[in-house]
Amino acid sequence: MKAIVTNGYGGADNLRLLDVPQPKVGPDQVLVRVKAAGVNPVDWKIAAGGLDGMMYVHFPLIPGWDAAGVVEELGADTPEFSVGDEVLGYVRRDEVGHGTYAEYIAAPARTLARKPAALGFREAAALPLAGLTALRSLDRVGAGDGETVLIHGGAGGVGSLGVQLAVLRGARVIATASERNHEFLRSLGAEPVTYGDGLADRVREIAPDGVDAALDFAGGGAVHVSREVLKDAARSASIADGDVQKLGGQVVWVRPDAAGLAQLAELAAAGKLTVHVDAALPLADAAEAFRRSESGRTRGKLVLDVP
């Protein structure tokens, strides 16, 4: 099968489209023919060695944790699925090596959910990691009806879904982004503010009494701004800055969650949650996808089409 491979830590230039063996299918796994793979910042961070102190990484490495496709083969004990099922998954294992930038993946059943027919493969591949991260973050801070939530990085893959999920819960959302993304945030139901110096003051202009919860999907010191405007320091979470714990908040690291993924997929299929795909590139252009993701200027998500 064809897959994107890197043989050592490095940047986008290390990626190659190669022929590799099709994966073996374990007893609790299904073989998925990948139609689209989601691109996330964690993919290029792993490939560059940024998570070496946290996770075992095996080379040759196939990047990627997000995928949507069709079940082609069942493991010995996978009654949840049938051959021909369309699925999406956050296919993360404890060790990194066999990722989703490939024609086929052997996916643990616990990482998958059925893809609703009304949800396209590209949107389905863009949803898992970002959607589950946003969902877990909101659950951790307890954001709910009638509360004001500050979201840093509101126009990105996680942030754009977090904004919508918070609005669906009845929250008022203030979200940071560059000015070019303000209209996009308004379309999602958020009140946009420009990030950078003076952010805390700009947030106070909108919410003079402070905010009830804050989610950092951007890094760059955003957790310190959150602390300035939060009513309760414990209701802060970050996926990008460990300093949040020193300030009384929580670090979020998303987990595979089939039930949560099914919930997100149904919301998207029903038109209640928009998965914004900024661009879809061919699998062979994974290096370009890495570069675009690294730029930090992506609105929503990038995906790879797998032929």
Automatic annotation (TrEMBL):
<dbReference type="InterPro" id="IPR020843">
    <property type="entry name" value="ER"/>
</dbReference>
<dbReference type="Pfam" id="PF08240">
    <property type="entry name" value="ADH_N"/>
</dbReference>
<dbReference type="InterPro" id="IPR013154">
    <property type="entry name" value="ADH-like_N"/>
</dbReference>
<protein>
    <submittedName>
        <fullName>NADP-dependent oxidoreductase</fullName>
    </submittedName>
</protein>
<dbReference type="InterPro" id="IPR011032">
    <property type="entry name" value="GroES-like_sf"/>
</dbReference>
<dbReference type="InterPro" id="IPR052733">
    <property type="entry name" value="Chloroplast_QOR"/>
</dbReference>
<dbReference type="Pfam" id="PF13602">
    <property type="entry name" value="ADH_zinc_N_2"/>
</dbReference>
<feature type="domain" description="Enoyl reductase (ER)">
    <location>
        <begin position="10"/>
        <end position="304"/>
    </location>
</feature>
<dbReference type="InterPro" id="IPR036291">
    <property type="entry name" value="NAD(P)-bd_dom_sf"/>
</dbReference>
